């Protein structure tokens, strides 16, 4: 698709909504990433304590 | 006055506040024993590891604004509103390589002001200090106000009392423990915040499926699902640049770059960015479920607490209270420490008393932290303005510092005149846009002016900076 084509598509779909799967993915991915974050912080802490590199 | 979002009894609120306050102060005193010299007090010994480094960058960036404004953004600007808020994570991502560069070029540096002074000279340094201290103080006031408003809204604790307690607690543990206490407590606070938001988010998902939420939104507020909502798209660029500006110029982040062990800074900031990125989305989507769950929202910035209380009852209310208290404390302590470092190192030691010894400097640091706390308290007492207006006003100012800092770290040709005019014109024109066009354009315009001016001067009147001048331990300056 050319840039002009893309622009034309956007202008013709001014009120295009976020597709439902994307909406769901966004929210589930956010919660998953946060859970991974919490777990990673705990693992990093244990590794730093073990290798005496906390401070 | 009964607030719509009062979800805890004052007795529970007082008990939670007392427990958390005591915990942070005791930890501050405990970790403070490690701060034997100024490197320890101001920079936690310059040897902070990956776990603490990542957590402190993330926790400091999760302010009460993240947990209050992200749902408000979602409710007013839709999906793009949440995404717009989460783009502030790019401040952390993009600061990661800078953190490495800063540590390499300035192994014995203390503040962002040190860099500006050594790189661009005194005039630019004065302008920068005005912007940076103003911003740090504005952020501190917005956090103090948020503390009072939240304690009142969540548990009916009077505004003045809640605000006083949160400021007092943060002042106490920062005075006792310096950056050791700030970083140590940040780790615990970041875990509490993440786990709290995930628990509330999962509880919402158990209460209602996302398909229903989507269908309800489509029927009642399709604008919130719109892929091309112009105000939201402007908000993305504004937030992105405001976020980058906030991180790049602020001594809060520079002091952490100096504090982290060699080789840790880049990884810590990158990981912090990844872990922060989903927070506004996770906190924001809860707001979008409000109409499906039949919750009537009259004050949009209280939508998060209301929803948590509605779904999880007292347990949810306790989680929200603790999450808010932690997000406030993790930012207030960092601001107190970093702003006082800037005042002590750049103003007191460089302008007032250059020969001050360690003992005296430490004493002055304590006085400045207490003074900042008291000043913030005095300004917060009358409860003026709203969180957003106070914070976004500083947007164009900080956005105008992005390019002088980035180009100053990587381009020899970036010149002092370019940096000065970039900050002055970026701030001036950005503020004009704030009043004439709207808050969501101010940072974008401030940053655009700043990049044009810095780049133009680097081409037309190039400097030939010697990087060795940034290492004061070698130049003996």
Explain this structure.
The complex is a heterodimer of chains A (about 55) and B (about 475). Chain A is built from two helices and no strands. Chain A has about 55 residues and is mainly α. The radius of gyration of chain A is 22 Å and the shape is elongated. Chain A starts with a helix and ends in a 5-residue tail after the last helix. Chain B is mostly helical. Chain B contains 22 helices and no strands. The radius of gyration of chain B is 22 Å and the shape is globular. Classes of the chains: A mainly alpha (about 55), B mainly alpha (about 475). Chains A and B meet through helix 2 of A and helix 3, helix 5, helix 9, helix 10 and helix 13 of B.
Estimate the global geometry of chain A from the Cα principal axes: elongated
Low-confidence parts of chain A, pLDDT < 50 over ≥5 residues? none
The number of distinct helices of chain B, counting runs of at least 4 residues, comes to 22
The span between the termini of chain B is 58 Å
The description of the largest β-sheet of chain B is: none
Distance between the termini of chain A: 53 Å
Oligomer: heterodimer
Q: Helix fraction of chain A?
A: over 70%
Order of helices and strands of chain A: HH
Radius of gyration of chain A: 22 Å
Structural class of chain A: mainly alpha
User: Stretches of chain B where pLDDT falls below 50 for ≥5 residues?
Assistant: none
Measured by DSSP, the beta-strand proportion of chain A falls in under 5%
- Biggest sheet descriptor of chain A: none
Interface with most residues = A-B, 32 and 45 residues
Radius of gyration of chain B: 22 Å
Strand % of chain B is under 5%
């Amino acid at each position: 698709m050319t840039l002009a084509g893309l622009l034309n598509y956007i202008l013709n779909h001014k009120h295009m909504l976020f597709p439902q799967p994307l909406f769901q993915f966004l929210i589930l991915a956010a919660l998953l990433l946060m859970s991974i974050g919490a777990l990673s912080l705990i693992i990093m802490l244990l590794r730093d304590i073990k290798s005496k590199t906390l401070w | 006055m009964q607030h719509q979002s009062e979800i805890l009894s004052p007795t529970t609120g007082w008990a939670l506040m007392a427990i958390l306050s005591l915990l942070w102060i005791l930890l501050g005193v405990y970790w403070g024993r490690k701060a034997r010299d100024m490197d320890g007090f101001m920079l936690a010994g310059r040897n902070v590891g990956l776990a603490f480094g990542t957590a402190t960058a993330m926790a400091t960036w999760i302010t009460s604004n993240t947990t209050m404004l992200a749902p408000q953004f979602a409710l007013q600007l839709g999906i793009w509103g949440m995404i717009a808020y989460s783009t502030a994570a790019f401040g952390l991502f993009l600061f990661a390589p800078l953190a490495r560069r800063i540590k390499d070029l300035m192994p014995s540096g203390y503040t962002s002001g040190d860099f500006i002074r050594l790189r661009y000279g005194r005039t630019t340094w004065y302008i920068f200090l005005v912007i940076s201290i103003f911003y740090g103080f504005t952020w501190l006031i917005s956090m103090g106000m948020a503390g009072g408003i939240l304690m009142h809204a969540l548990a009916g604790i009077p505004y003045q009392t809640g605000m006083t307690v949160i400021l007092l607690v943060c002042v106490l543990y920062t005075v006792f423990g310096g950056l050791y206490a700030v970083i140590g407590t940040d780790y615990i606070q970041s875990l509490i915040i993440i786990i709290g938001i995930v628990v509330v988010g999962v509880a919402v998902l158990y209460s209602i499926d996302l398909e229903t939420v989507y269908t309800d939104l489509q029927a009642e507020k399709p604008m919130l699902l719109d892929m091309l909502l112009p105000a939201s798209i402007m908000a993305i660029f504004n937030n992105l640049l405001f976020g980058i500006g906030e991180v790049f110029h602020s001594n809060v982040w520079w002091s952490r770059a100096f504090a982290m062990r060699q080789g840790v800074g880049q990884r810590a900031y990158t990981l912090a960015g990844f872990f922060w990125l989903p927070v506004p989305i996770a906190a924001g989507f809860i707001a979008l479920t409000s109409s499906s769950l039949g919750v009537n929202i009259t004050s949009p910035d209280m939508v998060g607490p209301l929803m948590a209380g509605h779904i999880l009852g007292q347990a949810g209310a306790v989680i929200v209270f603790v999450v808010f208290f932690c997000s406030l404390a993790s930012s207030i302590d960092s601001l107190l420490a970093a702003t006082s470092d800037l005042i002590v190192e750049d103003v007191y030691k460089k302008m007032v008393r250059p020969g001050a010894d360690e003992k005296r400097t430490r004493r002055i640091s304590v006085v400045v932290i207490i003074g900042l706390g008291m000043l913030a308290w005095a300004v917060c007492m009358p409860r003026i303005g709203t969180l957003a207006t106070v914070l976004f006003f500083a947007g164009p100012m900080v956005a105008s510092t992005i390019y002088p800092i980035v180009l100053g770290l990587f381009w020899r040709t970036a010149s002092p005149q370019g940096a000065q005019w970039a900050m002055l014109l970026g701030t001036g024109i950005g503020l004009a846009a704030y009043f004439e066009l709207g808050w969501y354009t101010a940072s974008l315009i401030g940053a655009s002016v700043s990049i044009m001016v810095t780049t133009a001067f680097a081409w037309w009147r190039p400097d030939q900076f010697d990087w060795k001048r940034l290492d004061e331990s070698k130049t003996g300056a």
